[in-house]
Amino acid sequence: MSPVTVSKGRSPSGPDDTFTQMADTDLEDIGRHCQYEYCGQLDFLPFRCESCRSTYCLDHRTETAHQCPREGEWARRRQVQNENQPPPEKPSIYNTEQCFHLQCKTLINTLKDPAVRCPQCNHQYCLKHRLREEHDCAKVVPLGARAGNAAPAETIKSMFARVRTWGRDKQQAAAKGTLLPALPKMKPKPNSPAARAVAVNGLKRSAKGDAAVPADKRLYLHTVGTAETQAAEPPSGDFFFDSRWKVGRVLDDAAKKLRVENLNNRVGGEDTKLRVFHVESGDFLEFSESIGAGKVKQGDTIVLLRGAGAVLESA
Asked: What's a Gene Ontology MF term here (predicted)?
């Protein structure tokens, strides 16, 4: 009669072990006999070899102990499985969120940097800017608040007038061949084709966008958002867009990247909607036209203005 083994105090097998501890649910058939040729003892907590799929006792559970005829097969299967799995996606601005503080570039909602939602403005911040005093909560438009109440008409008119004046002055300076005036907090652009080409190449190295857009279809632009209060500095960034996209899609993508609240798809008046202002031409772009139709060139600047439609209607 084969000896009986009752194994106590042993921990279950781990993910890196070549064997798996078995559990019997049938009370009338508890235990298994070790299938090693020179053993055969009954073990109430047997192990299954993941390479040869046979059952063994505690002493012969490893491939070496029972001289496994298919030694290493489990390890090779797992290696192939790991190679076929895509590597974990590195956190970026396209697959995670960014701290809502305008000057902060910290990616939040990751294992390293959890997010903290402010109970007053309802936006999410990194640990450094989680307190109201750290992110100027009193000046932040609460998430879900009506933009018409948060951005006074005078603020909208002032911003619109400043950008439009800058665009008109830039056109006149370009016609005279003089240096172009700069939008506040932005560097002036060069006038000569060679200098402009250098500037565009620099823009291509720093701009961000959807990696799926073909390289020959990318339109690189300086992009400026709308500041919700007159004291706040408007968010800005360098991005590339698909030249085949409609202006409406470019607006949606730019607003998301700059974290500007976009209410264009909701019912409301012109005072809450965003429009795209092309600085070089001094014109607003129609939502239905393609961004790469010809008016907008590489390295140009577009500005997302809220309430500009209401200002134009009253002008």
From this structure: zinc ion binding
164 vs 180: CA distance, rounded Å: 14
- Do 241 and 221 meet the contact criterion of CB atoms below 8 Å apart? yes
For domain 88-140, the CATH architecture is Irregular (4.10)
**pLDDT value at position 163?**
58
| Structure-block tokens of residue 162 | 């400043």
What pairing do the DSSP bridges indicate for beta strands 301-306 and 274-278? antiparallel
Q: What is the dihedral of CA 87, 93, 99, 105, to 10 degrees?
A: 100
Dihedral angle computed from the Cα positions of residues 66, 68, 74 and 80, in that order, rounded to the nearest 10 degrees: 150
Considering only the top CATH level, what class is 147-314?
alpha beta
The residues spanned by each domain of the chain are 4-84, 88-140, 147-314
Per-residue pLDDT tens over the stretch 97-146: 888 887 888 888 888 888 898 888 888 899 999 998 898 888 887 776 54
User: Has residue 52 got a pLDDT over 60?
Assistant: yes
In this chain, the answer to whether the domains covering 4-84 and 88-140 adopt an identical fold is yes
In angstroms, the CA 274 to CA 291 distance is 16
pLDDT tens string 200-251 = 888 888 888 888 899 899 999 988 887 665 556 778 889 999 999 999 999 9
Assign domain 4-84 to a CATH class: few secondary structures
